[in-house]
Structures are given as structure tokens and as C-alpha cells.
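Per reviewer request, we include the raw input and output of the structure prediction for the construct analysed in the revised manuscript.
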Amino acid sequence: MKEDKSKTAYMTVPIKKGKESYQNNLKTANYLRNNMQYKQALNKYLCSAMLDRNNSDIYFGLGICYKNLNKINKAVENLEKAVLLDNNNFETFYELGLCHLKNNQGCKAIKCFVRAIEIEPDNPDAIYNLGLAHEQVDEEDMALMIYQKLIETSPAYVNAYLRKSELLIKMQMYRPALALYNEVIKINPNYTKIYFNMAKCLDKLGKQQDAKRYYRKFLHYAPDDENANSAVKRMRDLQTVSSEKRNNFSIV
């Protein structure tokens, strides 16, 4: 029987082309994703996935693209596939944790961030987001402990100071919150929007003159901030209170 050369050619050529196409698609997809062209990258990753279902990088790339396109459930689905294929990738667990946080799934986020920290114990972003996840499940004491640990191990990580301060204010612990804000200013003197929070703490502590001074500093450096109107209103209120006190004293 005569060999059908056309059939042989059909069976062999696409395999080679398919492999080349897969590698090119994946390379292009990574390039597009790194340049924040997520829709274009998504198509290339999907083409790669048709040719290789066992590559964790493909599902990681799909997850990141879906996440940035605000399709969080699809992002979770693909990142979980990436985890099944590679259980030792920090970025996959970290990004999956972020997606669970966005979906208000704090318990799932905690598991992901814990695993990420096991892989990279000193990564401050993972530790910080672990604190956020504990906040999301109403475990403020655990979150405070995590932020304090982060302050001790990464003293220049400003977000840990800010988040711990917010929790302390929530607990009406204004003096230690104010101390943390002072530390932030030492770390980054240009972080002037923090003057609004410092003024609020001083206000709550009954130090109205100091509060007014910090409200003024805040308005000087951040006149267009979303809290500017609140600062102006509070300064007027404090000024009214001061005037009433002076008038009462004069009458006496």
C-alpha cells in the first residue's frame, strides 16, 4: 500500500509548529503582562493553555491578567490551578491571598499569606497583608501584633505604622497612635498628609491649640486633600470654642 505523504506531513508539521507557537505565545504573553497590556496578554496565555495544561506559569499569568481586569473569581480559579502545579511559588500564594482579600475571604487569605511567608519569611508585603487579613476576620489583636513585628523587623516600612495607628485610634488609644505618627514623620518628612491624623489625635487628647497647629500644617502642605474641608471645619469649631472661653473669662 502506498504511503499517504500528505497525511504524514499533516500529522508531523503542526506538532513542531505547535511547540514553537506555544513558546512564542508564552513569551509574548509575559511581555504584554509585564507592560500592563492585560487583555492582549490574556489571549496569548489562553492560546498557550490550549497547548500545555501543566505549566503553572500560564495559569499564574492568567490569574494576574484576570485580577487586573477586575475579574477576581476567574483570577482565583487560575491561581489555584497554578498552586496545584507548583506549591512552592511565593508570588502565586501572595497574589491568591490578595484576591481573597478583595473578595472579603479573610480566612482563605490568611492561609495563602502564611504559606507565602513560609516561602519568603522576611517579605514585608506578605506580613503586612497577613495583618489586613486578620483585621478582615475581626482579629484586631493579632493584626496589632503582626504590625508591631513588622515595625521591628522592617523599621522603614511606613504602612505598618499607619495601619497600627488606625487600629489604635479605633480603640481610642490616641497617645500611642500619635507616637507612631511621629515615627512616620521621622522616616519620611514628606509624608505631610499624616498631619491631619496627628491633629485628630491631639484634638481627642484635649490639646486643642496643638491640634489647630497641625490642622494648619496639614492645610499648608495638602490644601487639595480629601480631608481639607474637614480640617477647615474643625479649625473653625475650635476657634469658636476658644472665643467663647475667652468671652466667659472676660465676663467673670
